[in-house]
Design brief:
By secondary structure, the chain is mainly α. The protein is built from three helices and no strands. Helix 1 runs antiparallel to helix 2 and helix 1 packs antiparallel against helix 3. Keywords: Membrane, Transmembrane, Transmembrane helix.
Length: 71
């Protein structure tokens, strides 16, 4: 359940960032330039850092819990 919520949140944030990037290009009448494509790629990648930090926190809490039970 928690993983589904994380994936949904990731998808919504990435979709919002892609939509803003596409609207910016449409408003400037630029089309798909190399910089716009790089921006679209970055929109899909940057939420991974949030996911990494959340998973790191979950793993650290889990390891702490295991170390207390074995002591």
């Amino acid at each position: 359940m928690f993983e589904a919520a994380i994936v949904l949140l990731y998808g919504l944030v990435a979709l919002a960032a892609v939509a803003v990037t596409l609207l910016e290009g449409w408003a400037n009448h630029d089309g798909l330039t190399l910089h716009r494509l790089a921006g679209l790629f970055a929109c899909l990648i940057w939420p991974l850092t949030l996911l990494v930090f959340v998973l790191h926190g979950c793993l650290a809490r889990l390891l702490t819990r295991f170390s207390r039970t074995t002591a």
